[in-house]
């Protein structure tokens, strides 16, 4: 939706026009070109790939269980939280109002940039606690770096993460 008020006095300054796009259930993001920020979509795809890697790490961790109570819960947590995160990312692409309401009620931190980033870093740290060999280490590093990058992006471009 074009904003003629941003165009100046006569509305003739086309470079100053802004466009507003909606991305899934997230609030509207304003860009100067009207195009969807490529970075948002890149992170969504990367996040979904990381979720699959985390689920694989959890599955390998289950296979390598030592039958110790607390040590064996970590792979199960990883799989459950990876599924939760994956469903959130899918819901941002193809929103479903009942699922969005469920997420907002129970997992509101997904709708806060810093909350989501800290959750992602926590997920990366969980991957280090699983005996999945190099996949667990690579996945843990990748997920933790993803969370750290989200924090840096939030600090540099806060308009990409509007308040809910």
TrEMBL record:
The record's subcellular locations are:
Membrane
Q: Name one Pfam family in it.
A: COPI_assoc
Q: Name one GO cellular component term.
A: membrane
Annotated TM spans: 41-62, 69-88, 108-128, 135-155
**InterPro entries recorded:** Golgi_TVP15
Keyword flag Membrane? yes
Q: Which membrane topology describes this protein?
A: Multi-pass membrane protein
Is Transmembrane helix tagged as a keyword?
A: yes
* Superkingdom, taxonomy of origin: Eukaryota
Q: Which UniProt keywords apply?
A: Membrane, Transmembrane, Transmembrane helix
Supply the name of the protein.
Uncharacterized protein
This protein's species is Pelagomonas calceolata
């Amino acid at each position: 939706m074009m904003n003629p008020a941003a165009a100046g006095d006569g509305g003739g300054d086309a470079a100053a026009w802004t466009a507003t796009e909606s991305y899934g259930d997230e609030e509207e993001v304003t860009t100067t070109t009207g195009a969807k920020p490529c970075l948002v979509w890149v992170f969504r795809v990367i996040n979904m790939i990381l979720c699959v890697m985390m689920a694989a790490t959890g599955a390998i961790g289950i296979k390598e269980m030592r039958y110790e109570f607390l040590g064996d819960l970590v792979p199960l947590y990883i799989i459950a939280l990876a599924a939760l995160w994956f469903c959130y990312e899918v819901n941002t692409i193809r929103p479903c109002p009942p699922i969005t309401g469920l997420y907002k009620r129970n997992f509101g931190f997904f709708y806060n940039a810093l909350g989501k980033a800290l959750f992602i870093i926590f997920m990366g740290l969980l991957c280090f606690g699983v005996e999945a060999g190099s996949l667990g280490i690579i996945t843990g590093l990748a997920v933790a770096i993803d969370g750290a990058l989200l924090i840096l992006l939030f600090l540099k471009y806060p308009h990409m993460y509007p308040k809910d």
